[in-house]
Amino acid sequence: MSGVPILIAGLRFATGGITILDGVDATLPGTGITALVGPNGAGKSVLLRLVDDLLAPSAGTIRIGLPGAPPVRRAFVFQRPGFVRASAARNVALALAPLHLRRRERDARTAAALARAGLEGRGGEPATRLSGGEQQRLALSRAWATQPDLLLLDEPTANLDPTATERVERMIAAIAEAGTKVVLVSHNLGQVARLADDILVLSAGRAVEHGPTRQVISRPSTPEARAYLTGELPWTSFAAAC
């Protein structure tokens, strides 16, 4: 297994007396796009935050990357990305600051990030005044500029119209094709069918099914996965999206 595999064993997370994840076991491949799906409250976003060390598990382990390999560089893009009250270019440059780049390289990466986001010539505009789709593209491109090994996305197109969603999906696919491992939380099963190489289905805090996208879509092997997938989208149209 190459790239940035993610090994999850006996993962449990509880807070305020409520158990959100209850013994999750999964091995995510080190390359491509993995989609985390399941009903509301299944624990998808919590699992994503645990992978990024934004939360600490109550029990169990997460091992990211190969033994003996350098530390994995991670980036996280939220459903509603945050920006400081500064220009789009400044927001990208601030994300690059921890890398201690020479000014020329920092400026080059910032310009490339704006171009990838389709914001050439608009780097001086306040990031907070961009449209929702532009902000999400900027957030993705900002994360990409840091050259992460692992990119974690939490519902990146939840509030976007179809045109904006399509542009964001193209960027996500390009990031994965460039070699970054992507883990994506999405309720948009059409999007999952278009983008994901494999699907991990969560239900009531447990991983109930994991496999290649086509296999999980066409032949879900557990009642929980079958109920979720067929309940969210008519079977024929979802299968056709693949």
Automatic annotation (TrEMBL):
PROSITE patterns cross-referenced by the UniProt entry: ABC_TRANSPORTER_1 (PS00211), ABC_TRANSPORTER_2 (PS50893)
SUPFAM superfamilies on file: P-loop containing nucleoside triphosphate hydrolases
One GO MF term: ATP binding
Domain ABC transporter: 6-229
Keywords in alphabetical order: ATP-binding, Nucleotide-binding
A Pfam cross-reference name: ABC_tran
Family per similarity comment: Belongs to the ABC transporter superfamily.
Designated name of the protein: Nickel import ATP-binding protein NikO
Gene name of the record: nikO
